[in-house]
Design a protein that fits this description.
By secondary structure, the protein is an alpha/beta fold. The protein contains 18 helices and 13 strands. Helices cover 44% and strands 16% of the residues. Strand 5 and strand 6 form a beta hairpin.
Amino acid sequence: MKKWIALALAVVMVFAMAACSQSPAPDADAPPTDNGSDATAPATDATPSDKTVITFAAQGDSTPGTQAVLDAFNASQDQYTVEWTQMTNDSGSMRDQLITSFRAGSSDYDVVSLDVVWAGEFAAAGYIEPIDSYMRDAGLSAADFNSGSMASGSQAAKQYTLPFFPDLGLLYFRSDIVSPDDAAKLVAGNYTWDDLLAMAKAYKGQEGAADGIVFQAKQYEGLICNANEFTGSWSDVQGGLTTMKAFTDSDATPADILNYTEAETHASFINGNSVFARNWPYQYGMIKTDGTITTDQVSFAPLPLGGSVGGWLLAINANSANKDGAWALMDFIAGPEGQKVLSTQGGYLPGYNAVLDDPDVIASNEMLGSEGFQNALKTTIARPVSANYSKLSDDLQLAIHKYLSGSADIDSTVSAVNTALTN
């Protein structure tokens, strides 16, 4: 069971790293990558001739989760049956494949899986269908789902996506070092960034932990995820970036923190070299399999202003010839039954909030049994939703990293950031 959980967490790591890096991070346990061509894998052995086929374009899955949820949908249906077109697991290549299909006006795919940062671009281009009326008819609201995932798929006051499976930034801390009183504040989310920096300074050096806190500050997508968190989803750019620089300048962080990605972060924490670490859920699996510390020494907490959401979304192709069937599939996968299947059989985090309290789901993923992790999952925030996210991210990375490295002042940085966000 432990090996299975670690594998599932490693799969989630691949998708999270794809969303917060310039290119997907290689991983030995990652799902196999195809040769770039689509391969249709029926969700059942036979397609009943009296049912309408709904095509689902999604990345491969080395866990049983995706196949299981599609089988469950088919078993529930008298009208529709789903076929899974397996896409490449290379995030950039998958995006290119989808854009090529959408630009051609193709109806080959009815429902598509999207990286969270693609949704704004695809919605602005008219590639995907608004789902507000479908949600209204089904009695659903955005509050039913993971908040960051829903915000990632909202464009021009319209909702375009539902969560496939979320990922999130959160705080890991050494529960064998941090005092019970401080731990209680962290778990409840009852602390500020300034409080965290003070703790990192106070606990640095204990139990061989040379550094107080580590996080991602290199010039790449991970920097945007972290800046998003420090600024509270860009609600306080000056205050957030000033605080972020206080962290990077502090002796509580490594001297080379501006070169830290997820890899340097997890290497530090799982080997006992830091007291706190901002990272993704995959790190817990690495503690179980590769760490010199044990899971008994680790707890989780939400970040002060929320954790950046990663993961994947579901959307309807605007050119689908079967939009009602596409919605039926999307609603099932993102709803309570589908999310329970994905979580219990695939190890994925639920994007439907009520499923977080399901005993079977909690039993299948030990992280979900943690109050701090649950609080983190309930307080996710989206990165900026943009019709040209790649350029926006590049502009933000350049401006913020120059400031953190001391090459730009705060006023010019705030101006550059605000210009990028509003263009």
